[in-house]
Specification:
By secondary structure, the chain is an alpha/beta fold. The protein has ten helices and six strands; from the N terminus they run αβαβαβαβαββααααα. The protein is elongated, with a radius of gyration of 21 Å. It starts with 9 loop residues before the first helix and ends in a 15-residue tail after the last helix.
Length: 290
Amino acid sequence: MAQEINWFPGHMRKSLNETSERVKLVDVVYETCDARIPFSSRNPELSGIVSNKPRIVVLNKCDLADPNRTAEWMSYFDSIGVPAVEIDANHKKGLDKLTKLTLELVKDKLDKAKEKGRIGRPVRVMVAGVPNTGKSTLINALCKRKATITGDRPGVTRSSSWVKTDYGFDLMDMPGVLWPKIASKRMQLCLTATGAIKSEVTDSVEVAFETIKLIDSLYPNAIPNRYNVDEAPDPEDINACYDRFLEMAKKRGCILSGGRIDEERFSVLFLDDFRQARIGRLSLEIPMKG
Ligand SMILES: Nc1nc2c(ncn2[C@@H]2O[C@H](COP(=O)(O)OP(=O)(O)OP(=O)(O)O)[C@@H](O)[C@H]2O)c(=O)[nH]1
Ligand SMILES: [Mg+2]
């Protein structure tokens, strides 16, 4: 992918700075990730900022991810001693585990507060992570009302805000943040394919083309099953890959007047298919072994 895309607007630096300040006010941090890309959707700058607080890696959107891969990721986080929970905030799944784990992490602190006479003090949680991972949706699910605005694009939440629950949790919704130097092209691709990086700053044809290659390498039958094309050619054979891409577009009816293939329209359709798991529940990352 092109290196010059700008996914780090000034407001994200401001939000990261704000996170460093506001994290002092909370007991626990939920580091919300996209279960399809648990590696790429952990912001290293954010992880650094919140490192001295108890935190839980929240693998959200697990309804869209490959369940076997998610199980591997859960074992991985367990093996490195990082508390993690898989959830589906849209359908309110996994929330009990999340609150239970949260209470375990803050138990000592609450017990100490109780000893000092501070009974019924709320548990304060910061919900942070890269854009579009479902932070605000999670907050609404946890407080059981529409307290914050959500949206199917990155950059919906623009400033932090507190939301109260009726069971003693105060939740701080944070704007989604990326980091200035996303060194690996594969990470850029994963973040763009899942919608964490704004599509406006990327070339959708290139993103779709590369995402198809990545899916083919991980799930060889997924694209043929959905788009009625042959299995992937040699990924080094760009012409053959491109011909197959055009065939997919043609079969989806993306044809301009004069018979030319509408690559742009197909790319947008394809990315929407991927994001809504119409190609299947696909995860783009596998945890490191050993
Ligand atoms: N399928 C699915 N979609 C989800 C889930 N959680 C959130 N979404 C969708 O993801 C999109 C983004 O959700 P938001 O809650 O606005 O995400 P956010 O992390 O607050 O985004 P920013 O404020 O832009 O950083 C919305 O369209 C949600 O409906 C989930 O568990 N599964
Ligand atoms: Mg939000």
